[in-house]
Structure formats: C-alpha cells, structure tokens
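step=encode ok
step=design start
structure_in=
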C-alpha cells in the first residue's frame, strides 16, 4: 500500500497503512472513560492481570524495596533531581566513563562481546548480513493518539497476521459475526505478545507468537461477563489463548514478510496450541504431589498454557514463553486451607470469595478451573514453557526447574563453557528477579542426538533470586546537586540460590515446594522487591544485562516521597501522581562478564517519563534531544547492541510505542521513538530479524477501553471494522538495516 502522510503529522515524516481516521483521535474514544491505575484502562486491568493493581500487594514480606536503595544512593534527593539534576547526571556519566565503568565509549564491537553471542545464536548462524552501525538515523515519531501504526519517514509497515487469520490447513475464513470454537482452534489467537522469527532459509521463516489473553467484551456482541456468557463463547476464548506457529515468506527481497496461506504443501510447521493442548511437566518438580490432579494422577501432563506473556528464543532453536497472570482463570480459592491457602494468596488468587469479581468463569466450561474441584490445578500454571517449533509433532514442555511465578519472559544466554543462563522477571508490583543457571552444556552439533540433549538443558541447574544493595552513603549527598563520591546511582547485588535439582537451599521447604511456591521461598531469603520486573535480557554485544521495570502504581498511602522517582511521578499534563508510573531500566554487569556469576553491579540506565520532568534520566544524555517514554516492558537488541524498548501503559498522553536507544558510545542514552501503535494497544514483541531488515512488533489489545463494544469500538485497526490484535512488520524502503 502506498505511503500516505497522516494529517496530524509532518508530511515528510510518517505514514501508515490501512484506514486512517479523518481526525487523529478515533471518534469513540471521546465517549469512553479514561485510563487509570498505571496508565491502563479498566478493561486492561480486568482481563490482563485480573485487576492486580486494585488488590492488595501479594508480597507482604518485609524484604527490602529497590526504591529505597535509590534513596540511599542519592537519587531521591530533591536537590539533585529538581535543580540541575540533568547536569549532575550528565556529569555523572562522565565520571563513569573516566572510571571505565560506564558504557565503554568505544565501538560496540570493542566492548567485550565475549561469551554473549549465544543469546542470538540461532539468528546469527543464519545471518550472512552485515551488522549495522550503532547510530540510529531515523527521525523520531512524535507522541500521538492516532488509531494506526505510525513509523518514521523512509519506512513501510504491514500487518503480517491478525486475530482469526488461518494458521492450519482447513481453517475457515474469519467471520466475526459467527465465530466458533472449531474455527478458532485453527485460526490465529487473540492478544499476541511474544514474537520471534526463525529462519527457514533466506526468504522463508517461521513466526512464533503467543496469545496472552482475550478481551471478551470486544469479541462478542452483548457480552456481559463470565456468568452469563454461553459455554461456546467461553470455549472460543479458551481456544484463542496459547501460541501460534506460522510460515512466512519474504516479499521481493525486501524486509517485508507475508503469511503463507496454509495448505497441505505450505504449512508443514504451522500449529495452534491452545487450552486443551497437552504439555509435559519436566524437571525436578514434575510428578510432585503438589502437581497431581484427578485427571492427571502422575502430575506430569497439563492441558494448556495460560496468559503467555513474553518469552525467549534459545540458542538451540526452541521458543520459551512465560505464563504470567494465571490466577485470574480460577474460581473457588475460598475452599483452600492451610499452606495451600497461603500460597494461593501469595500468587494473587482471591481466597475470600467463591467467585472472584470479574471472573471469566472458565469453570463453567471445564471444572478443573474450580479450585474446590481440583485444588492442585492452579499449581500446574505459572511456568516457563518450551516449544520446539521445528518439530510440529513435539509435545511442549513446562520447565519446573525455572520456578513458578508470574513469568514475564525467559531470555537465554550462554556461559563461556556453553551452559545456558535464563533471566526471569516476576511481573507483579514488589516482586523479584531471578535467574536459572544450567549445569549442562549446550551441544552445538546439528544432529538428532545433540538436539535431544539440548532439550534437557533447562531441566538441570540452579534457580537464584536477586538481592540488591545501594552503595552510596546518604551522608555523601550534600544536597547541592553534587554526585556521591563514587559518581554513580548504583550498587551491588548477589544471586541467592533457592534450589538445585532436588536439593532445596531454603530452610523448611522441599525442592518441589521451592519450585511450585517460588515466591514464598524468595520471601524467606531476603530478595529485593522490584517495580513490576518485566523483560530482562543480556545484550549480545556488550554482555551487560538490561531489566525493564514497567511501573508500580503503588497505592499504599504514605509511600509517596515527591523527590523519589520511584514513589512519585509526573504524568500527562505535568500532573504529579503517587508511585512509579513511568518505569525505569536497570543495567547489570555480572562479575567477570560471566552470566553464571553469583555477584553483580547494577546502575540506573533510564528513569522513564517526560524528559522535561526532573524525575527522568536517560543515561546522562541531553534530555532536550530524547523522546518521552513511559512504561518500558518488552526489550530486544539489534545486531549492533542497540536496545529496543516496547511500552505498555503510557501515562504521558500518547499511544504506546517502540523506541530504540544506543547503550554504548557517545549516543548512549539518545532515545528515539521508532513507532506508535493504534489506540489503546500495547506494543509487544519486539524482534529484529537476523538479516537486520525487519522489525516485528505485536499490537496487543487495540481498542481495549472500558465501555467499548463491537457496536462502538474504540479502535477500528487494522481493517476499518472490529479491532484485531496483530503482528506488524516494519522495514526500510531502501532495504538497509532498520534503525540505522
Ligand atoms: Fe503481560 Fe508483564 O505483561
Ligand atoms: Ca509484558
Ligand atoms: Ca524481549
């Protein structure tokens, strides 16, 4: 489709595909209620995370909070942040560089790529492309409320696959008015999140995408809640959860990709995984009494994976996906007693009411979602799953060695001796960050035996949780904007072992209990509470590890210190709100550049928000040159090691989007917005293709606004009728690497 300038944007700058509304704001939006907690709409809160922000924080331990460490490091000092804060922080970056501790001010290739290449091993192996330079050349997309995908001048975008598109042969055409379970089982699912692109050759690729949850109000006419939904409607939503594997083909040697229409000849790998797909539980907790049910007395086979959020791609060519807000699918939590009840509460289950408010009522279609019927069924969700997309007959696995919590993602790198290390965030306010270190080495062979071996790597190793400390005495902060003596807003950390195989390191808990009730184990060892730790992964070029903490609406009165960016925020219109509404990004350096290290250093890389607000920091870069950003969520790296950041829940008055920022050299911290997504959508993925020609993002929940219905949608993207979550490809028209 030819590029068309949008009337709300400079003519030379951005374009969009698909229908463009006559005004910048979809008409329905003006009729509908506004967003709230953490920038999310009430409908998002209800379906995404079961209204987590409106319930008490599940972590009632008195473990330390990361925000308090920043106060100790001087970041909370009003004088630093409100008067000359930017200058002080820029100066701080210089101090870091002088000390050789900050971003190496050399080319990324010179900054220690040892041992990290495995994280993108699959892509690199098939690459053949030239790694792009680090500088980002595109003109940033400004904040906007346009109901479309907006990309920089010189770029094009297209919808690759959307909710309801055919995935397996025989899938019927999507028919919004007459959707059925049988059709949905063969079609692309709803709310796509993690995206990965695996080469099948130069011009063919496998796209693997997961489907986190459904917006039932937007899928059906007259939907009035789980209690009155038809059983067929409930089953359709169950079928729309899970994962999709589809084959793509390149369009004309460009960075554009299109869905290969599934047929018996062209769909060898195509696959839909849904709520009735069998998964094998593996690792030390498999078979535990905590995992056995009436339907599965062995405790080893689970039907379905729930609330798949982000994920990871392993160096051995498999795909990982994190089961996140699985608590919202169950009723009957009030029936639990004793330790089981304590554990359910720690995972955010409603243990007071038989039917939690807003329940999807999946129990009406399948009684295992009633805890009173199957007390252990909830324990069978909340894992990292591993799928071998190149074996369409394979049984996907739930890897118990990686622990059970609200897994955002699982991103794998390799140690120098090829042992996988998976970084793991537990996406809940005041929950923890973890890593798993395998004790087996990846086999680099390409035969069947090597592959079988590699499929065991995530079953054997040690699970750790992080404890962080700040290292700048508050007494060193003079209150005049000067930095502490060590010149950094930083500190140290240690990885505390929780469990190694069948050996528990937590007093009073068995190994199986540590793995099934990992949050309770981490509470005991003094882990550090974070602000919704989401994507967490290692930069394949500089070896450092980056953690996106999305936000923390922090509704606890009395915690607001206006000078602390993690307890007070500037939001749209310059208003002040309690909590950390804009999020931040932390940069970690494992000791010895070894991902298996037991200790690390951390520093703040970015305090997100409106750069005009004092509470923001962009690695010391000139704040007058950066794009506003709010709620960093999924992250990815391009071939040059630039950090790409997708957002979820912008509170600055713009649609969510995708940003890119160099993390090394003189451009370190120069954040630019690369695209925006349609109205009320979140940006997920992202992934940069192995040949650097394409960026793919998932546009999740377009039009997800309270009060929106099929008759009055808040978004009409992508086709001008009902909103349909979709995966979008973006490429440069001149065929050069994206971003640079
Ligand atoms: Fe599904 Fe943590 O976002
Ligand atoms: Ca997320
Ligand atoms: Ca990521």
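sequence_out=
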């Amino acid at each position: 489709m030819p590029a068309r300038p949008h009337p709300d944007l400079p003519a030379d700058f951005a374009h969009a595909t698909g229908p463009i509304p006559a005004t910048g704001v979809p008409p329905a939006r003006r009729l509908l209620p506004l967003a709230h907690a953490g920038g999310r709409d009430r409908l998002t809160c209800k379906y995404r995370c079961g209204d987590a922000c409106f319930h008490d924080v599940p972590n009632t331990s008195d473990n330390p909070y990361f925000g308090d460490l920043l106060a100790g490091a001087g970041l909370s000092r009003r004088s630093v942040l409100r008067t000359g804060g930017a200058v002080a922080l820029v100066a701080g970056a210089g101090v870091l560089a002088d000390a050789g501790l900050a971003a190496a001010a050399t080319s990324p290739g010179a900054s220690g790529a040892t041992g990290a290449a495995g994280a993108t091993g699959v892509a690199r192996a098939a690459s053949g492309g030239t790694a792009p330079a680090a500088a980002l050349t595109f003109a940033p997309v400004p904040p906007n409320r346009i109901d479309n995908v907006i990309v920089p001048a010189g770029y094009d975008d297209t919808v690759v696959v959307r909710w309801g598109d055919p995935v397996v042969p025989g899938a019927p055409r999507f028919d919004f008015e007459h959707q059925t379970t049988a059709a949905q089982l063969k079609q692309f699912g709803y709310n796509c999140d993690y995206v990965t692109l695996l080469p099948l050759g130069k011009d063919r690729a496998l796209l693997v995408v997961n489907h986190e949850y459904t917006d039932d109000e937007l899928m059906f006419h007259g939907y009035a809640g789980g209690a009155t939904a038809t059983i067929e409607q409930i089953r359709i939503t169950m079928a729309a959860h899970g994962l999709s594997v589809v084959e793509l083909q390149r369009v004309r040697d460009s960075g554009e990709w299109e869905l290969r229409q599934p047929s018996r000849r062209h769909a060898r790998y195509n696959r839909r995984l849904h709520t009735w797909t069998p998964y094998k539980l593996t690792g030390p907790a498999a078979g535990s009494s905590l995992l056995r049910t009436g339907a599965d007395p062995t405790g080893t086979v689970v039907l379905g994976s729930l609330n798949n959020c982000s994920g990871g791609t392993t160096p051995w060519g498999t795909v990982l996906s994190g089961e996140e807000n699985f608590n919202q699918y169950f009723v009957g939590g009030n029936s639990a007693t004793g330790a089981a009840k304590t554990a359910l509460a720690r995972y955010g289950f409603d243990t007071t009411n038989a039917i939690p408010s807003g329940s999807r009522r999946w129990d009406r279609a399948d009684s295992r979602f009633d805890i009173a019927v199957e007390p252990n069924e909830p324990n069978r969700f909340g894992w990292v799953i591993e799928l071998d997309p190149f074996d369409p007959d394979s049984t996907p696995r739930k890897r118990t060695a990686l622990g059970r919590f609200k897994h955002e993602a699982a991103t794998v790198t390799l140690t120098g001796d090829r042992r996988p290390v998976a970084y793991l965030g537990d996406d809940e306010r005041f929950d923890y960050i973890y890593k798993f270190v395998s004790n087996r080495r990846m086999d680099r062979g390409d035969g069947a035996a090597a592959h079988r071996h590699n499929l065991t790597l995530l079953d054997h190793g040690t699970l750790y949780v992080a404890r962080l400390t700040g290292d700048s005495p508050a007494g060193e902060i003079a209150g005049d904007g000067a930095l502490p003596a060590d010149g950094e807003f930083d500190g140290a950390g240690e990885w505390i072992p929780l469990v190694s195989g069948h050996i528990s390191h937590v007093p009073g808990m068995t190994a199986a209990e540590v793995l099934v009730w990992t949050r309770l184990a981490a509470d005991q060892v003094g882990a550090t509470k974070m602000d919704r730790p989401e994507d967490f992964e290692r930069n394949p070029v500089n070896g450092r590890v980056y953690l996106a903490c999305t936000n923390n609406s922090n509704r606890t009165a009395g915690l607001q210190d206006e000078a602390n960016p993690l307890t007070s925020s500037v939001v749209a219109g310059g208003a002040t709100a309690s909590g950390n509404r804009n999020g931040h990004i932390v940069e970690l350096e494992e000791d010895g550049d070894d991902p298996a290290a037991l200790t690390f250093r951390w520093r703040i890389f970015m305090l997100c928000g409106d750069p005009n607000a004092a509470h923001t920091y962009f690695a010391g870069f000139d704040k007058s040159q950066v794009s506003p950003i709010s709620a960093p969520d999924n992250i990815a790296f391009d071939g040059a090691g630039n950090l790409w950041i997708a957002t979820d829940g912008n509170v600055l008055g713009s649609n969510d989007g995708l940003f890119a920022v160099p993390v090394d050299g003189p451009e370190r911290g120069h954040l630019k917005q690369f695209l925006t997504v349609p109205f009320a959508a979140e940006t997920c993925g992202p992934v940069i293709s192995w040949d650097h020609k394409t960026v793919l993002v998932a546009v999740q929940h377009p039009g997800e606004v309270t009060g929106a219905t099929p008759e009055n949608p808040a978004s009409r993207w992508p086709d001008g009728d009902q909103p349909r979550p979709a995966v979008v490809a973006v490429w440069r028209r001149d065929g050069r690497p994206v971003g640079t």
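step=design ok
step=annotate ok -> The pocket of calcium ion (ligand 2) is lined by residues 309-310, 408, 534, 633-634, 648 (CB under 6 Å).
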